[in-house]
């Protein structure tokens, strides 16, 4: 089994997840594809660099002409779950970059809420040179979590921040600070302490980088490791959780099939 | 007198912090100070008019305050604010970062040049005034401000009834919104699946490229050329489809926002507050229509009350409009520039309000305004205001009519 698997991998014979099942179950495939999604929201104030970040994460390139995001822009990152181990599997992670600001009109907010359905992870982006953007992250996370329609959704009251609610939160969070290069050396420690407090509040890991420089996320750096761990956590919560839902049995069967055939 | 100025300054400061800059970080306190100063002195001018009418304070002290106020306001509006606008605009442009001050001064001189040229085509001055006299400056500020005021009033006169009167609100049901949202999500799903294919194809190409680097020989090279070509052609096709779909998703998003805001307006109109404003809307629409057709007030004292109402509502309306405008177009980069532009508009608007108010004030009170502001051709301003008001109102009617007509057709096509 393992030998076959290794052979398949070196041939570059990786199939996209939707095409795993043979042709005669085409309809089943299309239904399955909608269940296979791993959706991660990228939230933050306008101008912090979410679009640049998403572009860097998905295309491994720096975004040349950033412009305002109207509505929501999606991009896809291929992630190897548990890379390097025998259980390695490839997943598509959808990064939904939702534009706007926390102070938007309520019509904008209610339209934005459409994108917050069945979210599996949230990346909170803030600008290290702008304190307000960090403070607004509390409101962003509340806005997104309030709307989450999963059965174990967090019930938040009144928009007030409460740390216990984050402790019960089933959705993994990641904190990313951008424009790291624009902070002068003297102020770095002060900024880093501030973000450390923030990551404690959100019970999330934090990464500080500059979206115009790919070396911050180069393979082997601690940032890349944190990112990979976050995505692994998201996938784990999504597929391998002990959630007693009717989907679980189905998922288990899928897992068994994958492990034996070892298609990626 | 000065306490009230400090009060206004404080109010302007608060307004800035709480409303305008709610979501941004104030890094340049200069901007905040300038904005508050402009606001403070503008409000003081209105206060002085009221004092004039009420007869509070002695006439000489009123005169002194008028002059002082006027000098300060002109200084701010013509020297300080444009200079800072130029400075911040230049700071935003990366290329010119090095010599910011120099470029800011250049911008300011260009502004002054155009500002001066503005006076030539208008018959505002008699030639016996000197170059840097206060009349020259005021007259130009007045022209700009009056134009602005007339444009805004014309648009407001038409837009106010349109927004608040329920007659014009299109009927939006929840079903419409849900249908649009569903379409939006479907479009997003299509984008996602295409992007997955692109990503996977790219990954395969990359890995195949790696494998092929190991293959040597003639055939290996040929194979690599043909396979990658078809791969990349495929990719660019899918990419084009993705671009089109993304454009569609943006449009759908904006339409949904539009429908949501209409729905909220409908709900608002059913509440008590909404009904009150609806009534006001009818009242003001009649008033505005009347104003369009008749430009003289018939009774001096009624006009005084109206002066008071106009002052209060115009300040409030202006602040609200500026806030909405600011939210709509600002970002963390341009927020400073926009606030300064708004301060400039606000200052000019208030100065020209004073000029125009002379028209509405009873005769006995006009004297001090005339005395302080020198010999400007006031009639010119009144006529200019009326002309621009009419033009603006008519073009707003046309514009809103077209927008209203297009919308139902757009939704029927869904």
UniProtKB/TrEMBL annotation, chain A:
Molecular function GO terms recorded: GTP binding
Keyword Hydrolase attributed: no
UniProt keyword list: GTP-binding, Nucleotide-binding
Membership in a protein family: Belongs to the small GTPase superfamily. Rab family.
Function: Required for KRAS signaling regulation and modulation of cell proliferation. Regulator of KRAS prenylation, and probably prenylation of other small GTPases. Required for lymphocyte development and function. Not required for myeloid cell development.
Protein name: Rab-like protein 3
Protein source organism: Oryzias sinensis (Chinese medaka)
UniProtKB/TrEMBL annotation, chain B:
GO cellular component: Golgi cisterna membrane
Reaction equation(s) it catalyzes: fluoride(in) = fluoride(out); bromide(in) = bromide(out); iodide(out) = iodide(in)
Residue intervals of the Abscisic acid G-protein coupled receptor-like domain: 297-405
UniProt KW keywords: Membrane, Transmembrane, Transmembrane helix
GO biological process: intracellular pH reduction
UniProt cross-references to InterPro entries, sorted A to Z: ABA_GPCR_dom, Golgi_pH-regulator_cons_dom, GPHR/GTG
GO molecular function: voltage-gated monoatomic anion channel activity
Transmembrane segment boundaries: 6-21, 33-56, 68-89, 101-118, 138-160, 279-298, 304-327, 339-361, 381-402
Family as reported in the entry's similarity comment: Belongs to the Golgi pH regulator (TC 1.A.38) family.
Protein name per its UniProtKB record: G protein-coupled receptor 89B
Organism: Oryzias sinensis (Chinese medaka)
């Amino acid at each position: 089994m393992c030998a076959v698997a290794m052979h398949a991998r070196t041939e570059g014979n990786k199939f996209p997840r939707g095409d795993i099942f043979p042709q005669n179950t085409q309809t089943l495939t299309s239904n399955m594809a909608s269940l296979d999604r791993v959706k991660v929201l990228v939230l933050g104030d306008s101008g912090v660099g979410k679009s640049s970040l998403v572009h860097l994460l998905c295309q491994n390139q720096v975004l040349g002409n950033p412009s305002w995001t109207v509505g929501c822009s999606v991009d896809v990152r291929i992630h190897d779950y548990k890379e390097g181990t025998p259980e390695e599997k490839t997943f598509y992670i959808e990064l939904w970059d939702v534009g706007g600001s926390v102070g938007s009109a309520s019509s904008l907010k209610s339209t934005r809420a459409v994108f917050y359905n069945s979210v599996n992870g949230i990346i909170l982006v803030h600008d290290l040179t702008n304190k307000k953007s960090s403070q607004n992250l509390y409101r962003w996370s509340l806005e997104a979590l309030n709307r989450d329609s999963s059965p174990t959704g967090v019930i938040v009251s009144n928009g007030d921040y409460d740390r216990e609610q984050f402790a019960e939160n089933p959705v993994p969070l990641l904190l990313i600070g951008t424009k790291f290069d624009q902070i002068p050396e003297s102020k770095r420690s002060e900024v880093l302490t501030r973000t450390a407090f923030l990551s404690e509040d959100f019970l999330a890991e934090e990464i500080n980088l500059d979206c115009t420089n790919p070396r911050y996320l180069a393979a082997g750096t601690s940032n890349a490791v944190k990112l990979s761990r976050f995505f692994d956590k998201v996938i784990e919560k999504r597929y391998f959780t002990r959630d007693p839902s009717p989907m679980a049995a189905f998922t288990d069967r899928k897992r068994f099939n994958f492990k034996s055939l070892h298609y990626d | 007198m000065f306490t009230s100025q400090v009060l206004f300054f404080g109010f302007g400061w608060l307004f800035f912090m709480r409303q305008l800059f709610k979501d941004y970080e104030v890094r340049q306190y200069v901007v905040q100070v300038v904005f508050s100063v402009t606001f403070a002195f503008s409000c003081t001018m209105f206060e002085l008019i009221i004092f004039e009418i009420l007869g509070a304070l002695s006439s000489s002290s009123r005169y002194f305050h008028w002059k002082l106020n006027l000098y300060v306001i002109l200084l701010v509006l013509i020297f300080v604010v444009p200079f800072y606008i130029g400075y911040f605009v230049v700071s935003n442009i990366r290329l010119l970062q090095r010599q910011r001050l120099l470029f800011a001064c250049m911008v300011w001189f260009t502004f002054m040049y155009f500002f001066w040229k503005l006076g030539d085509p208008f018959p505002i001055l008699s030639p016996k005034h000197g170059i840097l006299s206060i009349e020259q400056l005021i007259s130009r500020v007045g022209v700009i401000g009056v134009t602005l005021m007339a444009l805004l009033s014309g648009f407001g006169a038409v837009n106010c009834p349109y927004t608040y009167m329920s007659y014009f609100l299109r009927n939006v049901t929840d079903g419409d919104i849900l249908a649009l949202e569903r379409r939006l999500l479907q479009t997003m799903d299509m984008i996602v699946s295409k992007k997955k294919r692109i990503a996977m194809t790219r990954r395969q190409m990359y890995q195949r490229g790696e494998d092929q680097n190991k293959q040597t020989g003639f055939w290996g090279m040929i194979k690599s050329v043909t396979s990658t070509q078809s791969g990349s052609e495929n990719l660019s096709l899918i990419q084009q489809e993705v671009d089109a779909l993304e454009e569609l998703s943006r449009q759908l998003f904006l339409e949904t926002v539009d429908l949501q805001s209409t729905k909220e307006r409908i709900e608002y109109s059913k509440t008590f507050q909404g009904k009150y404003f609806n009534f006001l809307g009818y009242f003001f629409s009649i008033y505005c229509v009347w104003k369009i057709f008749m430009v003289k007030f018939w009774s001096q004292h009624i006009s005084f009350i109206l002066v008071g109402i106009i002052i209060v509502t115009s300040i409030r309306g202006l602040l609200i409009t500026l806030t909405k405008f600011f939210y709509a177009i600002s970002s963390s980069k341009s927020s400073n520039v926009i606030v300064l532009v708004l301060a400039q508009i606000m200052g000019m608007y208030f100065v020209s309000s004073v000029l125009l108010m002379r028209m509405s004030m009873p005769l006995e009170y006009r004297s001090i305004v005339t005395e302080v502001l020198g010999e400007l051709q006031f009639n010119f301003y009144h006529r200019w205001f009326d002309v621009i008001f009419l033009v603006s109102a008519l073009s707003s009617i046309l514009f809103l009519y077209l927008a209203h007509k297009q919308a139902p057709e757009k939704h029927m096509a869904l």
